[in-house]
């Protein structure tokens, strides 16, 4: 077993994405047995102490039956309506399946905007962290009922990769109806499965032009895009058949492994260090400045003396030492208004005065870059 598969086996936080093609039966309706099989695998991960976020397609597949539609609708309005009907049925099926394992689920519906705009990004990050802290299993899908063509992903592969980066996951597992990436669409004479991808250079001759299954969207193209987003952020990816889900999440040599190519959060933090226009500043005391520079610790409200400007949670801010010198930059975990109320307070005081939601770091260590 290679090192990265070992890191999949030991991933503390994992995003598991399952596609429509794995959740529908032959007639295109949601397959409840498929939902149960997946729930058994995810519950096994949870029993082993791992945190899991499940990104699941299938709302449209689940809506076809109740609406008496023969196939996935082509026009946006009907697709929105079908997803609206099906999403409830999808989550109800998961809820029942996970309840048999004593697990509570929480539905999170996102649009592309939620993952890309930094003010929203912080909100999603906070919601995932809190759900996971509470032991809840977040079940994510695109908010198809309101997503218009301009803002929608359409497929859930890239959504899953962005969820993995936002939630600081250690691994992303993409489950589909094919047992890995092939050199050409499976069934093409001579097509062979690829075991491992080390970087874009391994994808030179690979043909992913054939579209996906009747129910899925995006085929292999969006899975490669998802793998690229995750691996350049330092997250290992496994693409495998949902029939092999248990082996894939265990780090066994099934499907295709995409090795991380970048450092964790490199892209975001480089953007933060070099390109971001900050919306405000947080002035810290000498102790906090030393902690930030030396130990790379999270920024706690106790070390903050002043909050300047106007920013929302998730937006970039400058962190200034007591002498006004730029020490670090970070993505604020709270808005300027909230940070101002929190400044100087210990975690206990934050909990007593402002409530549990505020009893955590102002900026997480993973959201900081020392200048
Ligand atoms: N090079 C390739 N290797 C593997 N699968 C491919 C390739 N090119 C196209 N495909 C197709 O991609 C499909 C999976 O994509 P999709 O139907 O969108 O799945 P999902 O619903 O799981 O997201 C496979 O069924 C396969 O036919
Ligand atoms: N959000 C849509 C999923 C779109 C879709 O089919 O995605 P995928 O199965 O990842 O190709 C749904 O729930 O039906």
From TrEMBL:
Substrate binds at residues 57, 144, 156. It comes from the Bacteria. PROSITE patterns: GLUTAMATE_5_KINASE, PUA. Keywords: Amino-acid biosynthesis, ATP-binding, Cytoplasm, Kinase, Nucleotide-binding, Proline biosynthesis, Transferase. Residues 280-363 form the PUA domain. ATP binds at residues 17, 176-177, 217-223. Its main location: cytoplasm. Its EC number is 2.7.2.11. One of its GO terms (biological process) is L-proline biosynthetic process. SMART domains: PUA. It is an enzyme of class 2 (transferase). Belongs to the glutamate 5-kinase family. Catalyzes the transfer of a phosphate group to glutamate to form L-glutamate 5-phosphate. This is Glutamate 5-kinase. It comes from Demequina activiva.
């Amino acid at each position: 077993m290679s090192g990265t598969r070992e890191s999949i086996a030991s991933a503390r936080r994992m995003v598991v994405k399952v596609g429509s093609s794995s959740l529908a039966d032959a007639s295109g309706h949601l397959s409840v047995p498929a939902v149960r099989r997946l729930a058994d695998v995810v519950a096994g991960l949870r029993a082993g102490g791992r945190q899991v976020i499940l990104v699941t397609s299938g709302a449209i597949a689940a809506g076809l039956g109740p609406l008496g539609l023969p196939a996935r609708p082509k026009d946006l309005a009907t697709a929105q309506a079908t997803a609206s009907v099906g999403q409830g049925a999808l989550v109800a099926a998961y809820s029942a399946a996970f309840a048999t394992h004593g697990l509570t689920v929480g539905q999170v519906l996102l649009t592309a905007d939620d993952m890309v705009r930094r003010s929203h990004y912080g909100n999603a990050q906070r919601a995932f962290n809190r759900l996971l802290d509470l032991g809840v299993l977040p079940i994510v899908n695109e908010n198809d009922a309101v997503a218009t063509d301009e803002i929608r992903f359409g497929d859930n592969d890239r959504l899953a990769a962005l969820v993995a980066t936002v939630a600081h996951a250690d691994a992303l597992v993409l489950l589909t109806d094919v047992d890995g990436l092939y050199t050409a669409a499976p069934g093409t004479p001579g097509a062979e499965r690829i075991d491992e991808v080390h970087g874009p250079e391994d994808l030179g001759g690979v043909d992913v032009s054939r579209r996906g299954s009747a129910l899925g969207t995006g085929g292999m193209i969006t899975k490669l895009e998802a793998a690229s987003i995750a691996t350049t952020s330092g997250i290992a990816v496994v693409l495998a058949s949902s029939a092999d889900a248990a082996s894939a999440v265990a780090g066994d040599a099934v499907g295709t492994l995409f090795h991380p190519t970048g450092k964790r959060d490199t892209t975001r933090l480089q953007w933060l260090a070099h390109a971001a226009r900050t919306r405000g500043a947080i002035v810290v005391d000498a102790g906090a400045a030393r902690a930030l520079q030396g130990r790379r610790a999270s920024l706690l409200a106790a070390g903050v003396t002043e909050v300047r400007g106007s920013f929302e949670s998730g937006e970039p801010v400058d962190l200034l030492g007591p002498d006004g010198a730029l020490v670090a930059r970070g993505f604020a975990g709270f808005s300027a208004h909230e940070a101002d109320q929190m400044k100087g307070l210990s975690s206990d005081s934050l909990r007593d005065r402002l409530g549990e939601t505020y009893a955590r770091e102002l900026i997480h260590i993973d959201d900081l870059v020392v200048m």
